[in-house]
Amino acid sequence: MRIFNTIILILLILLFSGEAMAGGYNVSGVGLRALSMGGAFRAVADDWSALYYNPAGLSSLYQHEIAFGIDLYSYRPEFTPQMTLNDYSFGYYDGEKRVSDDKIPYTPFAAAAFVLPIFENVTAGFGVFQPFDHDVEWNVFRLSTAYNEYVDDSFTLPVPEALVPFPEITHAFNIDVIDFHPTVAAELIEDRMSLGLGLSIRKGSYNRSEIILQPNTLPETFSSRPYENLVTMTEYDASGWGLGFNAGLLFRASEKLKLGASYQSKTTIDLSGDAHATLFSPGNRHMENIADTADPAKQLFKGEVYTASHEADAEWVVPSEFGFGLSYQVSERWMIAADFAYIMWSEYEGIEFDVTNTTGLTDFEFINGYLNPVDFTEEWDDAFRISVGVEGHPHERYKLR
Prior knowledge:
Low-confidence stretches: 1-22, 153-162
Number of strands: 21
Number of helices: 6
Largest sheet: 15 strands, antiparallel
CATH topology: Porin
Distance between the termini: 24 Å
Helix content: under 10%
């Protein structure tokens, strides 16, 4: 009866094992074994991937380990714009389900862990892995003939030969964070408790472009619907470095039960790169003709595209995370594990530009006012992740996770 209950328990865990996530662009984890257990590895942490999950687990290694691999995945997030005010649309594909372009991102990892015989009960390791990765592109906005009569609106975007150049991709977000991670761990109580500390030397790349509607500040004659908002785009391509750390504790409560806890600090990556600001001006011959020669509207309503380039710095905050887990050796052949993690996404409030150099401005002050990069302001909620996994050895030649 006891064996039967154990089998039923394992089958249930297999059925529901995996990971429940909420928001963000962090990856599921690193390491083939840990990933196959749904990322429930904080209290297991008995191979090189302890560098990522719980550095204290490195102390349980009794031989050198070298590992490398790559994780491939594909996602197609959906988005239905609802950007209307009083039933008036601003150019978004309102009510239409949009799907991001197909992509197959990959996250490589490599690591080495070495037992140091010089210091008793001390283990050191070094790993390189990618804790954050995201790459999506969307087409969710179009210029209409109501805004610019010089636009060829007889085709659905992308327009093969548009009279006014307009990007096929209107929103794109591609980020990567690579973590170079030296770690040291030591046993505090032999075979009972260990402590680990790692250094996160992070290289980040940030590439983003987005359509942003900015209020038209001209008098009402030239700023009434559909010209109350001017269509602009901000693009930013930058990279930089940041420094953080992680720490972990691993406690063996009994021969079968292990408890683990870990913390990853937030990292502020100092970005430096190029920002491009573009104004897609409205096109209206009538408005252009009634405007006075010296009036900014004379230039605004020509339906032209203006772009200025900027050298810009910014700070990118990668959020902190803390969590705890447990693992239980059900029998000699079966182990179950569970993790809970809390990610402080509210620490990330977007990107604020510090422009250091600008080229490409026009001779028109009003136009230039729309050729500055617009900060990417965001408001995120914290998220949690629950992971459950199982590992079994139903046969001496096979392992099941």
